[in-house]
Amino acid sequence: MKILVAVxxxxxxxxxxxxxxxxSGVDLTNVKMSMNPFCEIAVEExxxxxxxxxxxxxxxxxxxxxxxxxxxxxxxxxxxxxxILVDAAEELxxxxxxxxxxxxxxxxxxxxxxxxxxxxxxxxxxxxxxLAALTGFGQGTFASKVxxxxxRIAVTREVDGGGQTVSLSLPAIVTTDLRLNEPRYASxxxxxxxxxxxxxxxxxxxxxxxxxxxxxTIKVETPAxxxxxxxxxxxxxxxxxxKNEAKVI
Length: 249
Known about the structure:
This protein is α/β, with parallel strands linked by helices. The protein has 6 helices and 13 strands. The protein has helices at residues 37-51, 69-78, 94-108, 127-135, 188-194, 235-244; strands at residues 2-6, 9-11, 18-19, 26-27, 33-35, 57-64, 82-87, 112-116, 138-149, 152-159, 162-169, 172-176, 199-202. The strands form 3 sheets. It has a 9-stranded mixed β-sheet, with helices on both faces. Helix 3 (94-108) crosses helix 4. The mean pLDDT is 92.
């Protein structure tokens, strides 16, 4: 079974982001970038399926600038077999990303596609669902457990009431949640081996996909600073402040 894993290059979660002075976006100058944490979980799950003898090949793909090769090499060091970079310097919306991934799916014909449920920068939680709609594959989102048996996959997904298990026929789309697994660290020997693994660079035009966006960013601004909280001595005082000061009731 071939698995395609989509990953995204994002600002490292330890970095405090800064907004550009003109409000046009986030300042990425000299900012540490890394693989989206949910994408790390997706790579780890694919590697575990391969170690379990279920998968035979793992292809990892990303869409972004040439510098995103660093994140692909990280995925290769974690156990992926080869990588695909769709070189797109501009910021793309979820639908454009889903269309590019659909073109890669058509090209690679994987039996399973695994993505992080969302990226920590845009935080949209859209790409996996859009890709499922474009491909016509069944989807298991917010996966906390994945079991493959024959040509079917059981995905336990996190819902408001607890857990829900859905059974999908392959090929299928799975988006990963935090409790699915704990990603491993890449060892130095594997990091060195990753440098020799194949990495193919494509363009949206080569895939026959238009990435023109109908969305336009008007302004980006830093959230308002929160004021310090206070302690109240009774429920009556709390209700009084919520009613007369906060004016929320």
